[in-house]
Amino acid sequence: MVGIRKRKDFFEEFGSELFDNLEEMIEALLEDMGESVPFVYGFSIIRRPGEDPELREFGNVSESSEDEENLFPSEIRDPLVDIFESEELVHVLAEIPEIEKEDLLLHATAQNLEIRILGASEYSQDIELPARVDPKSAQASYKNGVLEVTFKRCTEERPVEIEIN
Amino acid sequence: MERDSKKRRNFFDEIFGIDPVKDVDEMFERLSRAMGMSTENFGQDPFIYGFSLTQRPGEEPEIREFGNIPMFEHTENEEHCYLDTRKPLIDVLETEETVHVIAEIPGIEKENIRLNATDLILDIETIDGNPKYSERVELPVKVDPQSAKATYKNGVLEVTFKRLESISRTSINCTAGVTARGKAEVIKWWA
């Protein structure tokens, strides 16, 4: 039998010690929010063997706002990103629904991938890559709202033994 | 006023009061408790949780959750927890004559979306692909399920109903979204 266990409200349970805080935050958010743009916040947690767990946040919390009074949602959200490595490749997956492929601009260096979205409100995010890659090897596709970029890893520069003549 | 260039703490910390870097164990423990599962259930696939907050004029603010919902399978003396189903991010809009349900289900082929509606409920399910999405959307007013029109484009599903009273149960065909049938187009970018 497969079923969804009845669970308590996530906020109540997870944010129990901070519930007042959260309500205050929601109120603050509502005050500054545009009436039609929903505010979205989420996180992803990944735990791969032998690595530290990794938490990535996404949503349209304005990144530059330092004080909580200034928390209002921007129109474009930070995408949900997942990065995984194989022996030879580094894959970056980003969920960016609702845009056209033509509005996506990608730039890569050996250590970073910049995703830019053109349009009414321009947006960009810089993603740090977990390993050095060859940016010229990058291949990208955008399909059904998912951007996938694949890089070849740079081969590790090993010390070379030098003979003395 | 001089702008502080220091990046704010992450929102996670602000909202839940846990520093996800320093208090890793506590984070997993509290997350597991809130989800009713064990910390071992967090595996190699990303665990996703989020919420949206909407306020429309004259209405109460609305919070919708999305992300991975633990599913439990009970055998005689064991319980298995599956985390492969995801609740999509949903928005429901009303006009005088119609009700629109917008769901973000990126990464899915249109053919793999199953929609079923009654006058007050829309069930969204995907049958193949990763992640699996599943959601029951309660509609704010009664609709005619026969009137439903659905499109899927760039990861966004939109279902439009006419407002009306009806009790029959109907399945909905997805009409072609522009890119839903397109081939994966591969672009090369040169740094």
List the secondary-structure elements of chain A in sequence, H or E: EHHEEEEEEEEE
User: What is the CATH architecture assignment of the largest domain in chain A?
Assistant: Sandwich
- The whole-angstrom Rg of chain B is 20 Å
The total count of strands of chain B amounts to 15
| CATH architect. name of the domain at 43-175 in chain B | Sandwich
Number of domains of chain A: 2
Total DSSP helices of chain A: 2
What is the percent of helical residues of chain A?
Answer: 10-25%
From the spread of the alpha carbons, the general shape of chain A counts as elongated
What is the strand tally of chain A? 10
Number of H- or I-type helical stretches of chain B? 2
Oligomeric state: heterodimer
Low-confidence stretches of chain B: 1-8, 177-191
Examine the coordinates and then state which fold CATH places here, giving the name of the CATH topology of the largest domain in chain A: Immunoglobulin-like
- Kindly provide the radius of gyration of chain A, computed on alpha-carbon positions and rounded to a whole number of angstroms: 21 Å
Q: Largest protein interface?
A: A-B, 71 and 73 residues
